[in-house]
Amino acid sequence: MGAIKGIHGAGEAFRGAVNGSIAKVGGDSSDMEKQRIVKEDGMRALRESGFREKAEGRLGKKNVTNGNGSLAVVNEGGIR
Questions:
Q1: Contact 45, 14 (CB under 8 A)
Q2: pTM exceeding the 0.90 threshold for the entire prediction
Q3: How far is Cα 73 from Cα 37, in angstroms, rounded to an integer?
Q4: Sign of dihedral through CA atoms 68, 69, 73, 76?
């Protein structure tokens, strides 16, 4: 469930950022404020979901077979 909340939050944050930029170009300050709130709510949902932290812990690692048919986790060095 956390992953779904995190993905939804990321989408809302992106939507708020894009629509806020469009409102800024159009000079609509009330819509800019509305989109800022949408973006902040999305970022809050992403942070609270724990999705980002879980994903960061998995970056740079992959499962590979170790020759006898079982899996081993390997770091791909340098990726953070």
A1: no
A2: no
A3: 41
A4: positive
